[in-house]
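A common beginner's mistake is to predict each chain separately and then try to dock the pieces by hand. The better habit, illustrated here, is to supply every component at once so that their relative placement is modeled jointly.
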Amino acid sequence: MALWGMVIDLDRCTGCQACVMACKAENNVPAVGPKEASRERIISWMQVLTEEDKEHPDGKLRFLPRPCLHCDDPPCTKVCPVYATYRDPEGIVAQIYARCIGCRFCMAACPYNAKYFNWHTYQKEGPGQNPDVSVRQKGIVEKCTFCHHRLQKARERALAEHREIEPGEYVPACAEACPARAIVFGDLSDPSSEVSKLARSPRAFRLQEELGTKPKVIYLTEGEARG
Amino acid sequence: MDRPHPLPDRTVKILQWAMAGGFILFVGAIVTWIIHLIRTAWWLRDVPSASIGISLVAIPVFLVLLGVVLYVFWGLLTDRSER
Amino acid sequence: MADPADTRDAILLAPIERTGRGFYWAVAILSLGVLWGAVAYAVQLDGGLGVTGLHQPVSWGFYVTNFVFFIGISHAGTLISAILRLSRAEWRRPITRMAEVITVMVLFIGAGQILVDLGRPDRVMNVIRHGRYQSPLLWDATSISAYLTASLVYLWLPMIPDIAILRDRLGKRKFFYTVLALGWQGTERQHKVLNRAIAVMAVLVIPIAVSVHTVVSFVFSMTLQPMWHSTIFGPYFVVGAIFSGIAALIVAMLIFRKAYGLQGYLRPIHFRYLGQLLLVMALLWFYFTFTEYLTGYYGGEVEEMKVFWGKFWGPFSLFFWGMVLANFVIPLFCLVRLERRTIGKVLTASLSVIVGMWLERFIIVVPTLSYPRLPFPEGIYWPTWVEWGETAASFALFALFYLLFTKVFPIISIWEIQEGREVGLKEVEERLLTYLPDTVEPEFTPVDRGG
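With all components supplied together, the output reads:
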């Protein structure tokens, strides 16, 4: 069985936010509007965090694109009282919108703040939305699903053609959109896949590794360009 | 013991035993609920040990509560002795 | 025992028999508070939780603070009354009922906070249908329902003889009292059954109460978040709960003492003892707080320190130091010497502790969420009128429930006071004698052993 994972090369990331926009379009992530944004209620499954570079204080910023890290031992699924968020057999941490009661315990438990809450009704179903992704109502938690609907499509296609899913057949929108090709996606259980190889790189690290959450989004440090 | 206004004794008795019955139903519902949660956890292979561990404490606690309440109902309502 | 000639405790029945204008005023004012909360809740149901001040990093605020706070207050009752009963403290007699009522009423308010806090309250039944015991929220649900059941039973059982008194003496609600009195005639066998049941309940209720606030603390300490993930949170929360519970009990006692003229029953000595208990809990609370913060500070882990400094000197410092002042400094000054002006001092300390413990719950819930581990903007949380409304309504609803209770049942246990006069006095004397070394041998004249 596959174990889906992602490698993000921070050396390649330019901070252009193409991944953020692609994600929003693909997953019907609502634009909350300026008023809500000023109240810190932006929903952004993929978010490019910025941090001042302490080694180069001359106004340089470091970028950290952060989707849901799809931890192998997720702190959020443990605390969910109703099984509305769980780790599926292929390692994707899923969210059941129809089940969620909106207690926000998973948000409080996630050390990466990868979960977002629908504080109001931000959108209704309408034209221009991706029909593969359900539109979330107010009062529930949502987050990055590794574009799970694309996996479902790829799986059905492969099933119809009596074959396995080929590498590169299932890729989330952010990886697809990245112009610098900083985001690589694939099967971590296959040692010959590109993600697996990159994950073994000496530059590879995981966010807050010491917490034991075993994230399946692996970062490559800036190193090659800076030396 | 003489009472100034004798009341419909039957209705009172029925209601009192109905209260006891209601409490049995309540505790029964809670125990059923806990067992249901164990079953769900088992099917989904979703940490059944947690449910079993908690039920080992929770179910006896509710049963003891039920026992105390029934003891009081039985002890007070079936008392035929005069003061 | 239902001797109509005995009019000594008539004042305890007075609030049930007659209703003055003060009662209607109180109900009206409290209803206004409840109305504010109801309007706020309607607005929140319509618009979603966005009408509150909650936002991206701080997803829990006033509601969760209130939840922890009110569940904490509930430890007043049953726990204190059970401990006093088991230790045969004779001064408990006029206090236990008041304490037990607090527990029952406040548990409803506390559990209600969760309903207010949910994004989808219409799906609350999912917790029953699809609940999973790995989540500490289910531990809370189980533990709190056990506590609610136990404390209701523990409120009702010692009230049965009083209900029988009401049934026999009071003209109104006769059917209601007759049913609830379970045919109590005060026979020897009935007394035996009831006393045995009360004793079992008093023992049972203590571990349940301790479990309640322990699992409430587990909601926080089971996560990996800085300044939540702490092993002492269980006992820390329980100590804080008993602390705030005693304070609430003292305030309730003083209000009804004044309103119903119960000065004869609730005497300065009761407040002195409770004040001393409060002082002990204040010291214990400080000890736990000190230990908790010192270990965090000494370890100096980066994420812990962000939250730590946020509380110490940062945007939460006002609340933090306010909490230290209200929970430790003021009670200490008020309660060290209680010989003179007992009532005023105990009341000041108790009000201060109630404010301080609310701040403590707030200072535990919010700052941790305000300082995310990753480089996010730090979140400052300020509630809107909706959260203020729900909070005001919670307090008002609690007071209203309490007030209505006193109109239906006696707020001081009549039969236990009588028992104190008739049985307790002699029993204490006999018991006291058994504590002493061979002072009473009937045919033995005490020998003056000299110096």
